[in-house]
């Protein structure tokens, strides 16, 4: 005993209920879409910041690499200078040893000559005394 009005109102109520559910689903989907778009904007900004940081780090790395290369060259130059200085020091030490031997020899020769001079002086004194007597 449904009447035409009752039969029509039943589907209309169902349709209205389905429409309300679809509208609620649509509203939730739009909210999720807005949240997603907001998240996209946030992530794009974060990506831009990370990209800038990466570029900055790449520039810093390049500078550090150049500095490292410069330090490497400087180190090699200093190592070469050290080897040259060590060679000069060894040569100077050998020269000092040779000169010290020469000084020792000359000092010994001087002592011997002083003794000889003293002996000659003594001989002259003796000869002079003998001439006087």
From TrEMBL:
From which residue to which does any coiled coil extend?
Answer: 12-123
- Alphabetic keyword roster: Coiled coil
InterPro entries, alphabetically? Tropomyosin (IPR000533)
Which top-rank group of organisms is this from?
Answer: Eukaryota
Is Coiled coil a UniProt keyword of this protein? yes
Give the family from UniProt: Belongs to the tropomyosin family.
What name appears for this protein in its UniProt entry? Tropomyosin
């Amino acid at each position: 005993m449904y009447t035409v009005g009752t039969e029509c109102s039943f589907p209309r109520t169902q349709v209205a209920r389905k429409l309300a559910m679809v509208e609620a689903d649509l509203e939730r989907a739009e909210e999720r879409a807005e949240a997603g778009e907001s998240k996209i904007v946030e992530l794009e900004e974060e990506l831009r910041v990370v990209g800038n940081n990466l570029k900055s780090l790449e520039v810093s790395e390049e500078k550090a690499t150049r500095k490292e290369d410069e330090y490497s060259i400087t180190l090699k130059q200093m190592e070469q200078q050290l080897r040259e200085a060590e060679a000069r020091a060894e040569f100077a030490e050998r020269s000092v040893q040779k000169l010290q031997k020469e000084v020792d020899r000359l000092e010994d020769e001087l002592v011997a000559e002083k003794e000889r001079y003293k002996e000659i002086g003594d001989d002259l004194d003796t000869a002079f005394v003998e001439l006087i007597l």
